[in-house]
Amino acid sequence: MAISGVADREPTEGSSITKIWNNPTVRGVFWQIVLIVAVLGCGAYLASNAIDNLARQHIASGFGFLGREAGFDISEKLVEYQPSDTYRDAFVVGLLNTFEVAGLGVVLATILGTLIGVARLSPNWLLRKLAQCYVELWRNLPLLLQLFFWYSIMHVVAPGPRDAWVLAPDVFLSNRGLMFPVPEADATHKFIWIAFFVGIVAAIGLDWWGRKRQEATGQPFPILGAGAGLIIGLPVLVFLVTGMHLTLNKPEMQGFNFTGGASFSPELTALLLGLVVYTASYIAEIVRSGILAVSHGQTEAASALGLQRGKVLRLIILPQALRVIIPPMTSQYLNLTKNSTLAVAIGFPDLVFVANTQINQTGQAIEGIGIIMATYLAISLSISLLMNIYNARIALKGR
Amino acid sequence: MATTTMLPASGPNGAQRFAVWVRANLFNSIGNSIITIVFGSFALWVLWNIVKWGVIDAVWVAPNMRACQAAGTGACWAFVGEKWRFILFGRYPYEEQWRSALVTLILFGMTGASFVPKLWRLEMVYAWVAAWIICGVLMWGGVLGLAPVESDLWSGLPLTLILSLISMIFGFVLAIFLALGRRSNLPIVKLVCTVFIEVMRGVPLITVLFMASLMLPLFLPPGFSVSKLLRAVIAITMFLGAYQAEDLRAGLMALPKGQYEAADALGLSYWRKTKSIVLPQAITIVIPPLVGNLIGNFKNTSLVSIISLLDLMSTTQVALVDPNWRGLTSEAYLFLGAIYFAACFAMSRYSQWLEVLLNKGKRR
Amino acid sequence: MSEAAIAPKLGAPIIEMRDVNKWYGEFHVLRNVNMQVKKGEKVVICGPSGSGKSTAIRCINRLEEHQKGQIIVDGIELTANLKNIELIRREVGMVFQQFNLFPHLTVLENLTLAPIWVRKVPKKEAEETAMYYLNRVRIPEQANKYPGQLSGGQQQRVAIARSLCMKPNIMLFDEPTSALDPEMVKEVLDVMVGLANEGMTMICVTHEMGFARTVADTMVFMDRGEVVETSAPEEFFAAPKNERTRAFLGQILHH
To answer: How far apart are CA B152 and CA A46, in angstroms?
Structure first.
């Protein structure tokens, strides 16, 4: 077969324009300029339309409304708030509510999710199947539907306060919400909190010292036990010394409702139940795959070296499993936080709910939505940043 | 882990094997036995109560809720019997609902056909285009003697299907451009794509929906109005596109560099290389997360009820407001849940099957 | 069988590398590489790993970019000019160590893809060419199989056929047999010898010294980014001029 070549080739001397066009840098710059012009052009067009429309509908611009009186009440709040407070205060209340839901939700979902994830790996067939049913059920239904379901449980199925379900001593669930006891504020509690933080610092210091000592002398030090002792023991010590001032403010039936104690509204309870149950099903799968990701050979090798089961778990299995678990886990935490915005559908006053009210009242949709988006973006990006730092630190070094 | 148990010397029959299995998997230790008994009885108790409420004591026909309560203590399925048409088709004009139903069947059929790998040919694209045109004519009407129906009246199951399918198709196209753009060497292109993806992924879907429904009208010139349906479609498409773009990008990164190099060495142009070599392989690599996003998208369409679009979730809520049928939330949500569960479960099983199928061709 | 028996007429220089330098960041991977390949010549480049030999030939079809110096292929200078790169890639075929066949396409589709889309050849003609080369590499029956179903040796032969379907003037081989099980190396080398005997211009980076002795017109030894020695195979193997060449040959020629 003859080798072809020169005969069917185009000449390389083209015009100077084609020469320039064939330069990859030139082409790149050209398309980017086109893109910039397009984006800025669209932006300018949209902005000018917006200015016109806002002017025509007599809607103000800017964030001046934040200083004005809000004029609406918020049914559930962690801090003091009245309708005569400003919009800014209202937003803060909403934000705190969001944090409350997100914080509690994350903790509870992690606990429940881990339990179910471990159950998915149980040697007991029934437990495995039940856990699998749990996961399949909640993952294949929309979260909004689940929230409405729990909301209907709280409002339609749950009994009145007189016949409230007793979940634990002094913990009541009724259609007025979840009532539980809280400790009464006392002057000595300040010292207990201080002791708690001192304990944490001391435990960290002890951990560092114990590790250095083990490196130098080979002598192990029961860091875990001693550390836990400090964190728990110091506050307990202070508690005992200051006279054991602890009275619980308990919810008690009075007339038609409970007084005393603290409560979660039915909306908050429904929101928490929905978010926790839903997110736990995803966390269960993450935990399961994390544990499975550590191959059995690791356990065998560790045992063959003579490590005891507890050490194998702590030094070999857990670090590798956590490596696989933590990134998707934080992603689920973010999802839970974002999903908490569905609160607006069942009437729990989170940030989006407050912003929605503000938009309805002032008509300033752009500013209101801007506030919500900026807040959630800030939360998401900071979590992502922390996640990237964590990943870079613990990444297994490859070739 | 299950302990091995000696089988009878004469060879096990069915009953004996079952007994062995039960012993090994459910009762092989004291702890396990306790767990089996506790959870077993709990599960049976729950199951029994559900069957009792849902089937045995249930009332299947009744004119209203009070009659239901009088007739029995179980579920009032008469509610579903009465309201199913409203839940499924909502405010679409009663006489024209056959059009709505026909569209649902067409879309179901086309989706089902798209699941069959043997039918993945160019003709399928033509079929889909034809199907959408037919559905558009049926839903909007105004031609061929069909009464016109505004898109604001479209509701229930057809609306949910239309929202999901359109956002899936356009979202995926958007995702391809976003993913390729984010991997580009051109800094501006990369920046624009990255910002879009990160913003869409960092905010809740609700804010994107609010953005589309509340803010979009402000950005358009007066007299130019966009229907609520279109606003919702735009929002969901942008949101889904960003998530699909990230998963696709992972696939692009997972593709061995050698594939890119071989295509370059053969002289293939960028777009030809991307279309024939890179994308087919990258997409195959990330099918599980891609389908996961599609399932999530289907569930997410329920959020349009918050911006007053009458999807399946909304129609159910409205049906529950009827004073004749107060308080029957469990029946309504179970009916709705069954629909969603069937669809999502089928999609996730299909995704697993597809994964196995696509990997079969690769192994020796 | 040595090259002298066939005695082809070597043509004009078809590849010229003049003072080619390349850096990966701080690392100077190619140092003043000078090489000239005539039309019809078979050049074998050998050297320890990390010597830059793969990098050198990957610069020829712009899979790697050189920062300094000139590379001229078939009269076209290799710069950032996209058109020139396109033209060069049509004339230069490359066979990789990892085969890099497209796993989602059949063998036939792998072979016809580039001719159809780059040389704009009609499908029927492309398939005929493909079957011709599949016969040449002696696996015509595999045309409708997928790469994953073939052995390593078969896959590499398909990869060679794939490059040949573009009717290149020059074939580059980057350690084509290094990833193969020993029993499959011969079938690939046989194909390459056949190609050589037909007069194809070839540059091979390889450790297969038996093959080199049979086929090469010129041996090039590279070490630490430099071309250390260039000579005819008889001279190269019998009496290497450079100390480093001697040390390297000592290490690899003890089979």
So the answer is: 25
Q: Nearest CA of chain A to the CA of B75: how many Å?
A: 13
Binned at pLDDT 50, 70 and 90, residue B217 comes out as confident
Residue range A87-184+247-394, CATH number: 1.10.3720.10
CB A3 within 8 A of CB C200: yes
* Residues of chain A with confidence (pLDDT) below 70: 1-15, 245, 307-309, 395-399
Which residues in chain A touch residue B305, judged by CB atoms under 8 angstroms apart? 144, 345
How do residues B339-362 score in pLDDT, each as one tens digit?
999 999 999 898 888 888 877 655
A49 touches B at CB < 8 Å: yes
What is the separation of C-alpha C228 from the centre of its chain, rounded to a whole number of angstroms?
20
Choose among A5, A6, A22: nearest Cβ to C82: A22
Which residues of chain A are within 8 Å of residue C11 when distances are taken between CB atoms?
none
Query: Which residue spans of chain B are classified as CATH 1.10.3720.10?
Result: 152-359
Interface membership of A126 toward B (CB under 8 Å) = yes
B202, B341, B345 ranked by CB distance to A376: nearest: B202
B36/A contact by beta carbon, under 8 A: yes
ipTM of the complex: 0.86
- Asked if the C-beta of B187 comes within 8 angstroms of chain A's C-beta atoms, the answer is yes
> Chain A closest CA to B354's CA: distance in Å?
19
Least confident of A81-90, C87-96, C119-128, C163-172: A81-90
Sort residue A58 into left (φ over 0), alpha (ψ -120 to 50) or beta. Answer: left
Residue C146 contacts A, CB cutoff 8 Å: no
State the Cα–Cα distance between residues A198 and A211, nearest whole angstrom: 20
**The pair of three-digit structure tokens given for residue A274, joined into one six-digit string:** 């929905």
- Looking at 1.10.3720.10, 3.40.50.300, 3.40.30.10, 4.10.520.10, the CATH number of the domain B152-359 comes to 1.10.3720.10
DSSP three-state, residue B311? strand
State phi, psi for C48 to the nearest 5 degrees.
-65, 165
CB contact B198 to A (< 8 Å): yes
Alpha carbon of residue B24 to chain centroid: 39
Q: Do B210 and A56 touch (CB under 8 A)?
A: no
* Closest chain B residue by Cα to residue C145: B361
Cβ contact A283:A110 at 8 Å: yes
Residues C180 and C202: their CA atoms lie apart, in Å, by: 20
Distance CA A121, CA A125 (A): 9
Chains that touch A (3 or more CB pairs under 8 A): B, C
Chain B: closest CA distance from residue A156 (Å): 7
- The whole-angstrom distance between residue B59's C-alpha and the CA centroid of its chain comes to 31
Shortest Cα distance, chain B CAs vs residue C72, angstroms: 17
Q: What is the CA radius of gyration of chain A?
A: 30
Q: C82 touching A, CB under 8 A?
A: yes
Pairing between β-strand C201-205 and β-strand C170-174 as defined by DSSP bridges = parallel
**Model confidence pLDDT, tens digit, residues B178-189:** 999 999 888 999
DSSP A235-292: HHHHHHHTT----EE--EEETTEEESSEEE-HHHHHHHHHHHHHHHHHHHHHHHHHHH
Q: Taking the domains of chain A in order of start, what are their residue ranges?
A: 4-56, 87-184+247-394, 189-241
Sign, CA dihedral A351-A357-A362-A363, equals positive
- Measure A6 CA to nearest chain C CA, in Å: 8
The residues near C103 (Cβ < 8 Å, ≥ 6 apart) are B281, B362, C146, C147, C148
Our CA dihedral for B37, B39, B43, B48, rounded to 10 degrees, sits at 40
A111 neighbors A396 (Cβ within 8 angstroms): no
